[in-house]
Amino acid sequence: MASSSVNLEEIPSESLMNELLRRMKCAPKPEKHLILIGPPGSGKGTQSPIIKDEHCLCHLATGDMLRAAVSAKTPLGIKAKESMDKGELVSDDLVVGIIDEAMKKPSCKKGFILDGFPRTVAQAQKLDEMLERQGVKIDKVLDFAIDDAVLEERISGRWIHPASGRSYHTKFAPPRVPGVDDVTGESLIQRKDDTAAVLKSRLESFHRQTQPVINYYSKKGIVATLHAEKPLSDVTDEVRKVLS
Ligand code: ADP
Ligand code: AMP
């Protein structure tokens, strides 16, 4: 048998206990395969960690993965950077490839939350093919419905922790210490594309390319529409109702 590279004795007891409790809580959970669709700033990244913990799913956010690739200057990141800076979508093939790979992670055993994917009907069709091969089907699509007018304030006050994708807001969801991630104590950053000018083109591509994806899933009868302009905890309550 190959020797494990992890020495369990070196892991603090509290971490081991927490992992054990997590596994006991997760074992009986049914599988769930979810898609979150909504314009930039509608709250997908805020609700995802809550859904992920409650249902033991992995959170696959193509925007987070692409930003990590851009900052690591990988070939994928170099290809994606220009479109991302302009607020345009990157090519379907690039994102389909990263999602296909990411779904194989052990943390996706109980299912996944797709956040920011699929964003075009072509991506949705490719996802269907991928899932058919795995014998998996999408259970629910959460549509974060919100008026465009609300989004500029959401986007301009957003601060993120790049390593985890955690989102904060100076007014609506401030961190305990300004500019610092609550969990790791690391610095928060503002996204380069979170400006009023880039938001305009991101919204334009949302309405033109992503709105039809909601119609695509509506025909399958699996879309639940949320009132995403409500306060954060009200949206969490709506999500819980839909997924119960
Ligand atoms: P998305 O992932 O859909 O782009 P985020 O979840 O990052 O959006 O939310 C955008 C910003 O709005 C963040 O700064 C977040 O803290 C804040 N936010 C999220 N949900 C709400 C809400 N229901 N009410 C007010 N602010 C919110
Ligand atoms: P997000 O973090 O979801 O706001 O995404 C940031 C940027 O990454 C977008 O403006 C796009 O340039 C790119 N991106 C993320 N997901 C996708 C996707 N599914 N298809 C194409 N481009 C994407």
From TrEMBL:
Keyword Nucleotide-binding set for record? yes
Write down the chemical reaction(s) this protein catalyses.
Answer: AMP + ATP = 2 ADP
Enumerate the transmembrane spans. none
Q: Which GO terms describe its molecular function?
A: kinase activity
Q: Which PROSITE patterns match?
A: ADENYLATE_KINASE (PS00113)
CDD domains, per database record: ADK
**Segments forming domain Adenylate kinase active site lid:** 158-193
Q: Which domain of life is it from?
A: Eukaryota
Signal peptide stretch: none
Q: What is its EC number?
A: 2.7.4.3
Instruction: Indicate yes or no for the key word Protein biosynthesis.
Output: no
**Entry-linked Pfam families:** ADK, ADK_lid
The UniProt keywords, alphabetically, are:
Kinase, Nucleotide-binding, Transferase
- Main enzyme class: transferase
Gene3D superfamilies from the xrefs?
P-loop containing nucleotide triphosphate hydrolases (3.40.50.300)
The UniProt subunit note reads as follows: Monomer.
Q: Belongs to which family?
A: Belongs to the adenylate kinase family.
What is the protein name stated in its UniProt record?
A: adenylate kinase
Q: What species does this protein belong to?
A: Gossypium hirsutum (Upland cotton)
Q: Which gene encodes it?
A: LOC121203554
